[in-house]
Design goal:
By secondary structure, this protein is of the alpha/beta class. It has 2 domains: about 100 residues, Nonspecific Lipid-transfer Protein, Chain A, CATH 3.30.1050; about 280 residues, Vaccinia Virus protein VP39 (Rossmann fold, 3-Layer(aba) Sandwich). The strands form 2 sheets. Strands 7-6-5-8-9-11-10 form a 7-stranded mixed sheet. Strand 1 and strand 2 form a beta hairpin. Helix 2 packs antiparallel against helix 3, helix 15 packs antiparallel against helix 17 and helix 16 packs across helix 17. The longest helix is centred in the last third of the chain and has 19 residues. The chain is elongated, with a radius of gyration of 24 Å. The N and C termini lie far apart (about 60 Å). This is SAM-dependent methyltransferase. Pfam families: CMAS (PF02353). One of its GO terms (molecular function) is methyltransferase activity. Belongs to the CFA/CMAS family. Keywords: Lipid metabolism, Methyltransferase, S-adenosyl-L-methionine, Transferase.
């Protein structure tokens, strides 16, 4: 990028960072920014990063540059970049807003080298706009099937290595930070089933059942459990798991949209990590459907990631990196918004709790598992995709710690409008161990 008329990369960086920012950045053109002994050391290895940032001056430009190796951070572990993400967040007080003249000079310096086609990582999916132009309207059955397949049909073997034997891809519940992941995931399954308080012979529907861990846990208690998912790979894995356990008489998994479940009068319905894919604008319809599926005095347990603050109506509650690389059409809402929709469907919400710290611990465990199995994971899905998942898991852990996102469980009861005595409806106080 260097001739006498161009800006040095260090000058470009100085457009966005205060001079005393605690970071050292060494660039491919020989220029540098910041003190040489800074704890955070970044190397910009290619001019392609500048072109990426001009084309995409947002998180996609940064994410692409990281994934494609246009910059690197000293000491980073691609399976768990959490420490470096912490350091980058600490730079936020030193970020400055450039003037229009500074931005114009920077753009002119980059564009003086010509228009360059930017590279797109193989692991990146189409934008939301591109999906819509190809007929994939968010949260229709067709779009949901495509987006679920994009994420969950990646590889059962890949997921099994970082999730562990539980094959449970949702927040675990820890008694202490030292509790093992497997124990904590069983603790979560038990907590959900204890809250639902179903007895042997009663019927449970698990919507978005994943690989079947909740259905199997319920069947082990003698509960007749049906799980539905749009991921064929997940269902095939879970069906084989059920056969190994000898639970075919109690447990069933189907490749099926929740909107097509023909049965009614379930004693309990659970939705664990499913609502993130439904879309906030569809929550009312979703909970209305749940209300139809469960019998009077039956229970609903909804467990989902939430955001800390309300967003304007219709605005997707997810970021572009997650939308392109991890969860297409993912959408989050605040706990108050969700509880209102459950209430308006006709349920009585009887309990709600925030498990935010537990999800951060869960993600740290997944990063550790990814690190322990790194070579096998790279062999399974490729270096680029494995690198994406290391970033995704670590960034989510940090976001939970910073309270950008939370995770809530809502327990609700479908009231019997004929007026049964309260003791026959549900106990007067919580009946499960916290």
């Amino acid at each position: 990028m260097g001739n006498g008329k161009s800006m040095k990369v260090s000058e470009m960086i100085g457009t966005f960072l205060e001079p005393d920012a605690p970071v050292r950045i060494d660039a491919f053109d020989g220029s540098s920014f910041g003190p040489s002994d800074a704890d955070l050391q970044i190397s910009i290895t290619s001019p392609k990063m500048m072109y990426q940032l001009v084309h995409n001056p947002n998180e996609i430009g940064v994410a692409r540059s990281y994934i494609l190796g246009y910059f690197d951070i000293k000491g980073i572990d691609y399976a768990d970049p959490y420490p470096q993400l912490r350091q980058l967040v600490a730079l936020s007080p030193y970020v400055r807003k450039p003037s229009p003249a500074e931005l114009a000079r920077l753009a002119a310096a980059v564009l003086s080298h010509g228009i360059h086609k930017v590279e797109v990582p193989e692991s990146e999916g189409p934008s939301r706009f591109e999906r819509i132009t190809h007929g994939l309207i968010p949260h229709t059955e067709k779009a949901d099937s495509e987006t679920v397949s994009f994420h969950y049909d990646l590889s059962n073997e890949f997921y099994s290595r970082f999730l562990g034997p539980s094959m449970t891809y949702t927040c675990a519940v820890f008694d202490t930070p030292e509790t093992s992941l497997d124990v904590a995931q069983q603790r979560k399954l038990d907590l959900v089933l204890d809250k639902l308080d179903l007895k042997p012979g009663q019927r449970l529907l698990d919507i978005g059942c994943g690989w079947g861990s909740m259905v199997i846990a319920a069947a082990r208690r003698g509960i007749k459990a049906l799980g539905v998912s749009l991921s064929r790979e997940q269902i095939e894995y879970g069906q084989e798991w059920i056969r190994r356990e000898g639970l075919e008489d109690l447990a069933e998994l189907r490749v099926m949209d929740y909107r097509e479940v023909p049965e009614r009068d379930f004693d309990g319905v659970c939705s664990i990590g499913m609502m993130e894919h439904v879309g906030a604008k569809n929550y009312q319809h979703y909970f209305n459907e749940m209300f139809k599926l469960v019998k009077p005095m039956g229970r609903l347990l909804n467990h989902q990631i939430t955001i800390s603050h309300n967003r304007p109506n219709g605005r997707p509650g997810t970021d572009e990196f997650l939308d392109r690389y991890i969860f297409p059409d993912g959408d989050l809402a605040s706990p108050g918004f969700i509880e209102s929709r459950i209430h308006d469907a006709g349920f009585n919400v009887v309990h709600q709790e925030n498990l935010r710290q537990h999800y951060a611990l869960t993600l740290h465990n997944w990063n550790r598992n990814l690190k322990a199995n790194w070579d096998a994971e790279v062999a399974e899905v490729g270096f680029e995709r494995a690198k994406v998942y290391g970033l995704y898991l670590a960034a989510c852990a940090l976001n939970f710690e910073l309270d950008g996102i939370q995770v809530h469980q809502f327990l609700a009861v479908k009231p019997d409008r004929e007026g049964h005595p309260m003791g026959d409806w549900y106990p007067l106080r919580p009946w499960w161990k916290g």
